[in-house]
Amino acid sequence: VQLVESGGGLVQPGGSQRLSCVASGFTFSNYQMSWYRQAPGKGREWVARITSAGVTTDYSNSVKGRFTISRDNAKNTVYLQMKSLKPEDTAVYYCYARIRASDYWGQGTQVTVSS
Q1: Mean pLDDT, rounded, of the chain
Q2: Among 6, 24, 35, 61, which residue is least crowded by beta carbons within 10 Å?
Q3: How many Cα atoms are found within 13 Å in the side-chain-facing hemisphere of 19?
């Protein structure tokens, strides 16, 4: 199993960014996918999840209304569209999947919101 995130970078407050996570090594369309983040000096925080077919999504209160999770099962990719970014969104963002009772994480992609 491999999860590879991309799309991070430096963005100004109020700006937008889209993260991608390409999955391999398992049947992507069978599994729920999630995004987490970890800010400097803090624990890892759940951000959003999407069911296997993409029908249902759920968000943490801190990002609800600003972030959108989506997936393309034909491309084995899950996305996180972020808008109205705030400095407190600065973190390393991780893609996550739980497959057959095992946890899998990507390497993370840094998002820095700063002017």
Answers
A1: 97
A2: 61
A3: 31
